[in-house]
Each structure stands twice: as C-alpha cells, then as structure tokens.
Queue: 2 jobs
Job 1
Amino acid sequence: MRKIISTMWVTLDGFIAGLNNEMDWVGESYDEAMGKYESDLVNSADTLLLGRVTYQSFAGSWPHVPNNPDAPEEEKAYARTLNAMRKIVFSRTFESVEWNNSTLVKEVVPAEIERLKQEPGRNIIIYGSASLVRTLTSFSLIDEYQLLIHPVILGQGKPFFQGIKDQVKLKLVDSRTHPSGVVVLFYQPREKRA
C-alpha cells in the first residue's frame, strides 16, 4: 500500500509562515543536503496532494522552470519531475485547475483517499497545504510526517497543527541534520485511530 507523506518546513517555534504568509526564513537554510532531500522525496512518489494556496504557488512557478535559462540543472530536473506527476488539488473555490496532470477535488472524502492509497504506484506527497494536512490528520490518513525544523524563531506566525481536536500519538522513525542546521524529523502514527 502506498503511503501518504506530509512534508513541511517549520520554524523552531512551530510556525509554517509569518503572519502575512512570509517564508523568507527558508532561503538561508537551503543547501545541498536540502536539495538532495527534496529530490529523493519527489522521486519516491508519483502523486501530489495540494491545497489551494500551495497549488497556486507551485502552478505559478514550477511549469516555467524547465525553460528558464538561468535555473540550475538540478532545479530544472526537479521541476520536470513535479510537472509530470499526478496532482490532486483540493479546493472548494476553484472551478478548474490548469497545471498538467492536475485533477480538482472539492472535498476530502476519506474512502476515496483510502482507495487512492490502495492503487498501485509509489508514495503520495503533500507539500505544505497545512489545512489539507490537518483535515487528513483528523481522518487518520497520513502515514508519515516529515518536519523540516529550521533554525529560526519567528515569535509569531501561522502554526502548523492549529485546530487539531484529537490527540495524535507519533513515533520518531528517523532524524537527519543538515549542515545548514535544519533538522528533519520523520514521524509515523503509533496507532490508527478509529
């Protein structure tokens, strides 16, 4: 069975963005190890689950990277992989999605997500998309959380797991430290909730 893996950049004090969605704190930590992590992750999967905000950001940039003469070859290869992947976009407000291989879904139906996990293929990744992660967490549908803890304290911002009503017990299955100071923590649920 395929796994749903959530990957999220988080500050040391638990924020995924500043109060105005700023993420300028990420750039200083992006190094060769981060590039390898991102490349390995995307190559382990064939499907992306995206919320509206992350979809807009990704669809606005990644389709154009392969033709950008100033983009490094590693970034172009990563963009080609993302562009070729199947993308399922969750949004109640969109009428359509234009990025190739994208399908629009209006709401999360747990049985449909379980069916998706049963399909043959590689893993399913959720980049960012905090509200989608929170929804799937509430249905016990995420198999692994990969948190990239950045060495910065914002003091205020948008918390990742805000609004989770039920406790979710996790076990640490791996951790890695990048030269930049980013620590990647790999967690899996201890048990499935009913």
Note: Residues 18 and 156 are 7 Å apart (CA to CA).
Job 2
Amino acid sequence: MNKRIILIATLFGLTGVILGAFGAHGLEGKVSAISLDNWKTAVSYQFYHTFAILYLSTFSRAKNGLINFSFIAFSLGIILFSGSLYLLATREISGLSVSFLGPITPLGGLFFILGWISLFIATIRHK
C-alpha cells in the first residue's frame, strides 16, 4: 500500500466528516435550501472520491503512472469541485465575492472524470 495515498485519503475523509457535520448542524437555518443542497453535494462527492483514492492505494505496488494520475486528478477534483461548492454554499453568511468560482466547479468535475478514465485504462492494462 502507498502511505502517501492513504494519508491524503484519510485527511479528505476526516475533513468530509467534519464538513458534513458542520453542514448538518451549523448551516441549517443560516443558508438557503439550495445552498445547503450544494453543501451536501460537495460532501458526497468528497466522500465518493475519498473512497476511490483509498482504492488506488491497493495498486501502489504496480508503480503505474496512470494510477498516480488518477490519485492526483481525484485529489484536485475534491479540492476544486467540492471546495468551490463549499465556498458557494456559504457565500450568504461569509460575504465573500465568489464570482470567480463559476468555472472552478466544472474544472473540478473534469478532474474527477479524468481520474476515472485513467483508472479505467490502468485497469485494462494491468496484468
């Protein structure tokens, strides 16, 4: 197993639990229903890809560049996709101007897609 991949996944998992609890208990009644929905989407996608990153750690002995690319793509996807949604969801209470986030969220989604494609190709090529 790859210690670096597991450590990053555990950090994403830990922050996912904290952010999920904050959304459920700290944001309810303070942001709109749509913003709360965006928060939940961010947490969900963070967890889906945290588990995907943990799965990648089982391939670590193969020293496969595609697996490493998937790891980087999933990590960037969490940061960009979920991170931008967290900021967008809290703009009502933070007062931050988040207009620059418009293209960031889909870019994060693109990294998720690239990570899955890379994992697919790595799996086909694995002997």
Note: The chain has five helices and no strands.
